[in-house]
Amino acid sequence: MGSFWVFKPREVILKRTVFQMPDAGRAKIQFNRTNVILGIVLLLSFAGVLHHLVVLRKIRVAYVHNERSKPKVNPIWSKKCVKPEGYVFLKKHKTASTTFKGIMVNISKNLTLDGEKRWLGPQGGCYPAPFDPTCWPYSEEGSHYEKIQAMSYHFRWNLDYMPKLLANNRENIRTITTIRDPLDTFRSVFNYFYGAKRKGPHDDCDITCFGEPFWSITQSYNSTIGEFLDQLDEKYTDDAPYAFRAKNIQAYEMGMELKKMDDSKYVRKSLIEMDKQFDLVILTEHFWESIVLLSHLMCVEYSTLYRHGFKIILCYIFITIISKNQVLNLQKELMRTKKTTKCHN
Ligand SMILES: *[C@@H]1O[C@H](CO)[C@@H](O)[C@H](O)[C@H]1NC(C)=O
Ligand SMILES: *[C@@H]1O[C@H](CO)[C@@H](O)[C@H](O)[C@H]1NC(C)=O
Ligand SMILES: *[C@@H]1O[C@H](CO)[C@@H](O)[C@H](O)[C@H]1NC(C)=O
């Protein structure tokens, strides 16, 4: 008898010790009201926990995204404005930039910043080639490379080089430009470089290449904008002199390459870079809002941004948008704020 138990297989013994219940642990849960209600309650709480986890995750994702999308440099729109040590205003053709340049110059005076010297006429930095150090005129007041003060001429942004140029003092330098409705800009570019300036055939480009690319594309110096647009699809080529004026002059001056402007991946990538590289992109159609933002960004009072006789602005922006009375009211309003507004620092 004794020897029989010694050789009993091990798992049988284990089974006996673990499941002491008569039906070897397979007790059925009874199907009654209490159990059904309990089951439903359990199911509901399980669903509740799951729901909370999903919601919590969503909140976390939104929070992380929000944290990430906060600008890393220049917490500009924080409540207190901080006076910058310099700025780069990219002056772009036909986008009300002359008006804003005037305003920027007054800001320079108020912040006692020296203006950078221009290279050629109203231009700097090798325009229409992208800005690079070889075209930066030396100024006797000091090295450009150490500290930018006030740069506000026409040049072409360089998406690769500008961040390097600004890197040593990025937090204290403000970068600004203006953009305008593309069709309005095109109309203005056409009239300025071609329509208003036609004098006769342009055999060679002068420094500003007036007439181009419109003359090369139409082979005429008296086409109307409609006639030009009718020929555009057929005759446009990126290789025409100053072709960017007939494609997207704003994207070009902000640093995009002409021949890659049809590549949506490149365009998207460039836009992301621009978004990082500019602190304020003024929409010329929102002049007054821009003045408010500019005042805060540069930490100057509205009175510094005021300009007597808004003639240029009227021509550029308001003539088609608002009536003369509204303009007068806005001017009155500005005069009032001039007397009462203080810088928010
Ligand atoms: C800048 O503007 C402020 C406010 O109008 C003024 O108090 C200050 O004197 C100005 N600074 C200069 C250098 O003009
Ligand atoms: C443009 O000029 C040409 C001569 O160069 C002339 O034959 C033509 O009629 C002109 N067109 C317009 C619209 O003025
Ligand atoms: C700059 O300031 C002067 C003096 O206040 C003013 O006469 C001029 O209109 C201002 N220019 C611009 C562009 O705001």
Describe this structure as you would to a colleague.
The protein has 345 residues and is mostly helical. The chain contains 14 helices and four strands. Among the domains are: 60 residues, no CATH class; 149 residues. Strands 2-1-3-4 form a four-stranded parallel beta sheet, covered by helices on one side. It starts with a helix and ends in a 5-residue tail after the last helix. The structure holds 2-acetamido-2-deoxy-beta-D-glucopyranose (3 copies).
Helix and strand arrangement:
Layout: H1 2-6, H2 10-18, H3 33-69, E1 86-90, H4 97-111, E2 150-151, H5 161-166, E3 173-179, H6 182-195, H7 214-218, H8 225-235, H9 249-253, H10 264-277, E4 280-283, H11 287-298, H12 302-305, H13 311-318, H14 324-340
Parallel strand pairs: 1-2, 1-3, 3-4
The structure holds 2-acetamido-2-deoxy-beta-D-glucopyranose (3 copies).
One 2-acetamido-2-deoxy-beta-D-glucopyranose is lined by residues 220, 222.
Series of secondary-structure elements, N-terminal to C-terminal: HHHEHEHEHHHHHEHHHH
Mean pLDDT: 78
Alpha-beta classification:
mainly alpha
N-end to C-end Cα span: 100 Å
Instruction: Provide the low-confidence segments as ranges.
Output: 1-7, 12-19, 314-324, 337-345
What hetero molecules are bound to the protein chains? 2-acetamido-2-deoxy-beta-D-glucopyranose
Strand content: 5-15%
Helix content: 40-55%
Major sheet: arrangement of strands: 2-1-3-4
**Gross morphology:** elongated
Largest sheet: 4 strands, parallel
Report the total helices: 14
Q: What integer value in Å does the Rg equal?
A: 34 Å
Number of strands: 4
